[in-house]
Write a structure and sequence with these properties.
The chain has about 270 residues and is α+β, with helices and mostly antiparallel strands. It has a single domain, classed as hypothetical protein yedk fold, CATH 3.90.1680. It is built from seven helices and 14 strands. The strands form two sheets. Strands 2, 4, 5, 6, 7, 10, 11, 12 and 13 form a nine-stranded mixed sheet that branches. A hairpin with a 5-residue loop joins strand 4 and strand 5. It is globular.
Amino acid sequence: MCGRYVIARTPGQLALPFDARVDASVGEHVEPNWNVAPTHTVPVLLERLSEDGQLLPELHAARWGLVPSWAKEISVGSRMFNARSETVMDKPSFRAAITSRRCAVPADGYYEWKAPDTGRGRKQPYYVHPRDGSGIWFAGIYEWWRVPADATDGARAGQTRPGRGGDPDGAWLLSCSILTRAAPSPHDEDPALAALGSLHDRLPVGMSEEFAREWITPDTDKARTRALVDRAVDHGLEVAAHWSMHPVGTEVGSVASRGPQLVEPQNTLL
């Protein structure tokens, strides 16, 4: 799974490789965060129709934890921060988004907790990140949710309207979820993949910039979408083979801690 991650790159750094437009919501609601948790507002890359009908990449602010368009309450999103690649085409909460509302979620790395080999004691947090210091683009999906007029300010954070010149009488919330896949075997011949397999039984689906460009292009054809998801799952292992990990301090367990000290390596006997 992926329940905590790091995004410290600036909007300009994220947008540059894609020549993407940066939506005003990003500057208003997104800051560097070394401990992103579900319900936090994060940057996402997606494609939107321009006024002249062209699909263009844009960087937007979204709430992490997908809120389906039909949801009655925003709180349902707190449980939908991950979407299993095996069932994303079938789950009512995700099946509409996976075909036509795919996004790429940028990260510098993510955290995972490993249980002691004895099965007892405190879990040790690890920071997983590309060995070369580059970033990750997670395969994601997004949804628009119309915010009720009586919603709290927290529900309105990160809001935007669906389309230029959209509904002037209503506010909309953009939310997202990150796809996961089965982790590699702990006995994989690749040492990096074996280490990830020993860490947890799920793995977020990472993408290269090139694959991310294809991923965010909307397509309503279910067969092509299924094939794309399958390719993303396979591609995710190729990306993960270039990741490294090291133990970090338990301070990361508190969502109030968001500074760069969280990713510093810690000495541990585990």
